[in-house]
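Ticket closed. Logging final result for DegV domain-containing protein.
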Amino acid sequence: MNNIQIITDSMTDVPKYLVDKYSIRVVPLTINFEDGEYRDGVDLTGKAFYQKLTEVNELPKTSQVTPNTFIEVFKETLKEGKEVICINGSSKASGTHQAALLAKNELNSANSNKIDVFDTMGLCFGGGFYVYEAAKMIEEGKSRKEIVDMLKKMKSKIDHIFTVETLEYLKKGGRLNPMKATIATILNVKPILTVVDGLVEPLDKVRGSKKVIGKMIALAKERGGDFTGKTIAIAHANDPKKAEALKEVVLNELKPKEIIMTEIGCTIGTHAGPGTLAIFYHK
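Final structure:
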């Protein structure tokens, strides 16, 4: 039995089967709708969240995990005789990583020395990839230092390519100029986006939904090179059919060693909206 516990936040969208397989502890962010608070992936998941999202006029607010929550989780884990690697979604998108650092520093040095807090600068499984790789290394019996060194080497090497069904949610969330969003909608322009230094950036665009998957694959080939022996993750926001269509093309065109399927949770889904589709891989 290993003595290292991986803790992550719900922004990394690690699928349940991997959470269970590797005994990963997920600390949820909070989604604040007008009718109350919901813990991401606990009180509100999948279909119910996206249904609720389409019924409200104002986007819900997302709240970071608090330092006190991390303190409790860290103390519980240390009490079990385990060391901690806490792997968080992008610090540019949420204060959750900072809260984990504050929590670590609140503990006495004997305890804080048993904790590493890592900022993936990734969104969705762009952060989850770090969790997955660390979990496999724990199973292989690697030390905490070896795992953290590997995570540092991975930095900036996990690529995100994603598209949104509608620009409405990015516009509502203040992440896109309203005029640009309106023009793009009228022209039926579908943006292809990526993540640079922890924040969403435009990558390309196509006219019409039918061309989106082809463009995503072309960009992956251009940016990711040879996918033989690599793992690709596919994430969707309440659109499993579209995700399966993308999976089929990925298998035929990129031929990766492994495909991980996951769903975009409430935190990222709030700003991207239903129908969002993404792929992630090592460059």
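The chain has a mean pLDDT of 93. No further action required.
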